[in-house]
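WARN retry 2 of 3 for item q-0093 after timeout on previous attempt; input resubmitted unchanged.
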Amino acid sequence: MQSLAFAHVQHLLVVYAAYVLATASPGPSNMAIMGMAMSRGRLPALVLASGVITGSIFWAMLAATGLSAVLATYAHALTAIRIGGGLYLLYLAWKSARAALAPSRPAVTAPGGGTDFGRIYRRGLLMHLSNPKSILAWIAIMSLALRPDMPAVVLPMIIAGCALLGIIVFCGYALVFSTRPMVRLYQRVRRVVEGALAVFFGLAGLKLLVSRT
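OK item q-0093 returned
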């Protein structure tokens, strides 16, 4: 019995490790959080991260019920999400390019200084919900995680554990890149950072639009 329980724990750790690798690797969400943290400060970046986390948990719940796998079998639904995500990333690329060409401005907005936190939250949520890679990643994680011999308690442990890890990863990006050294660096190379984000979002959006998956 103890060896079986230990095997389940080991399996959970493998699932958590796979989730961290998928979440912490560079992607549109992480790049957006980093850019927001350096340009607007810690609180807006945390709000953006919370939107991304909400989107991740949404796909986790869908994957847990098997609905995301059903969705993935319908080519038209996944294609619509892919096109929408690609267009949204191109929109973010345009915004970053416009910011790169704009005159210098204060790097960080003071807390509560007219910042539309609702819009920032929706941006993070939409970014994650419109990324078909997120759906497929959660299907892969659930396929790896769920086995016939797994006790019922494992599924909520997977979702809760991955949610906690997502909070640590995404909010960690927000906290690290909103530190004073990073903000000062952004002030010095603002155009380079915004230009790099524009290129990254643009390439990611075009990749989604031309991808067949």
